[in-house]
Amino acid sequence: MTVETHHPAPREFDVRPILRSGGEPFQAIMEAVNGLRPGQALRLLAPFRPQPLFKVMEGRGFSHETQEMQGGDWEVLFTPKAAGAPVEVSADADNPDSWPDPIENLDLTELDPPEPMVRILAAAERLQPGEVLFALLSREPIFLFPELSKRGHQWAGNFDETRTTFRIFVRVGDKG
Amino acid sequence: MPGATLSPWTMSYFAAACLFLIAGESAMVGGYGYPFAAVEAPATLALVHVVAIGWLGLLMTGALLQFVPVLVAAPLRAGRLALPALALLIPGLLLLVGGFTALGGAQGVSTAMLPSGALLLAMGFGLAIIMLAATLLTVRPLPLPARFVAVGLGALIAAVLVGGAFTLVLSGTVTNYAAIALLLKGVPLHAALGLAGWLTFSAIGVSYRLLPMFMLAPDDTRPTNRAVLWTGAAALAIVVAGIVSIAVDSDGMEEAGSVAALLAVFAALLYSADVLRLFRERRRKIVELNIRASYAAFAALFASVVMFALPATRAAAGEGAAALVYLFVFGWLTGLGLAQLYKIVPFLTWLECYGPVLGRTAVPSIQDLVEDKRASLWFFVYYLAVIAATFSLFAECPGAFRVATLAQLCATVGLMVELVRARTLSSVAAPLRLPAGASRPHLFLPISRPQE
């Protein structure tokens, strides 16, 4: 079994264009956070020091480091605390860090079991070999794992820091 | 790799268990065993073991083979022992029952069947314990629900050893004083180890994991969960100490029984509070039939334990508090077992049959495999019959007991028919029943599709 010991590179998210156009970036930031790989950090670029966000991210299990950039903008690095559940991966998952960004994101947290399992397997059918999908679930999908493996898909996932949401990446295999 | 696959022989355990339940209930309807014979009469012993080992023991073993991997999120170890274990347990039980009937003077059987049956049972449960304990040992720290199962397995070992010692005395193989003293005084303790230790502890552990799963309730460990574990385990430790003190012929454990009962009441109170909290905090608003039927079983657990601890109700419950043992076995353990079978069998069948085509083609929902309306009527009749049978034992009215157990048997058979219909996909509308690529499940044998 491959277990990743190093963390993937931080994901960068620039909220300055959203703010410039008069938009509300909070939802977009949360989506970016949900899309993070297990263990992945988020580098946020903002025109001010986003104080209110620190508390929110603290609650999601992220610590932060701030740095003022030239021109008065701020760079904040949100790093997941080590307390996050360990990442589980399928036996054949070769280096999930190198997987491409997911092309399908599913929020299945409101669905009753076994519907999340059906949705993920159906989504995997739609994707091409090598493509990745990402899903949020309210339970660890223990009966889904063997079914993914049987179909030749690879997966990596874990609970978020609050242990209420399970995040899973599935890379569609050739046999799929 | 994490994840749980289908346990191939679980359905075979369930099928055998259901047959033993029907056999046991039929025997009661036929006037066999207590209250038509004494509590310690061979007929009662035969009946009790058909229900406790044949129905509840096989049911729990089959369920744990499937759900211990779910509790610890690790695959079952040594799963190839599942079939040999079943192949030892069934003849072991039949020999044991044959031995009991020999004690009652039946022809064509011999009391020598008692220790040989016990040996096969010990070997069968031994294999099951190897599989389950090896699976539990792969995970550190052990999640709390799995700890209940671990304690339950410890109690199973103790119950099997004590029961084995009984068979040696009953068959005349051993005439040593300690063993005879154990048989004379230790029967209630043997029953406590089996029914309260092994079966109840394991059921509580699995319920702490499965109830939040089915109801989408928070499954974080609460201090009350731990308190249930520790008070319950302390009660069991007193029971074990009592057995040891009988065997070494020391006094002083006489008072300890009431302490153990008090601890058990405390554990039952805390557990009841826990299951009520799970129900209140559930995110799934629909309450499925298996959950409603499970809560009826929790009520029976609570009622039987509290009445057992109260001297007045305990004294009124007949020889050996038989009415309360009946409520505990058929209201709590059997009620919960039937309720969970009603959820587990359709789910496992659905996964076994439609797993290969999920996401590729339209498949029925799990709910389509069963007919809730009919089944809820059967559950209603079942619990009503158990209450009536319990009252008839309190009232020492064997005629009413037979009528009540007949109703109970009918409801049980009704539920079994629902389970068979789920296995055979009979309730599923024909166009959806077997899409291309789906594998038709066998009634109780595994499909020979490679299991990972």
From TrEMBL, chain A:
Keywords: Plasmid. InterPro entries: DUF2249 (IPR018720), TusA-like_sf (IPR036868). Residues 12-79, 106-170 form the DUF2249 domain. The keyword Metal-binding does not apply. The keyword Hydrolase does not apply. This is DUF2249 domain-containing protein. It comes from Sinorhizobium medicae (strain WSM419). The lineage of its organism: Bacteria, Pseudomonadati, Pseudomonadota, Alphaproteobacteria, Hyphomicrobiales.
TrEMBL record, chain B:
The chain crosses the membrane at residues 12-34, 46-74, 81-106, 118-139, 148-171, 177-206, 227-248, 260-279, 291-310, 322-342, 375-394. InterPro entries: Cyt_c_oxase-like_su1_sf. Keywords: Membrane, Transmembrane, Transmembrane helix. The keyword Nucleotide-binding does not apply. It comes from the Bacteria. The keyword Transcription regulation does not apply. This is Transmembrane protein. It comes from Sinorhizobium medicae.
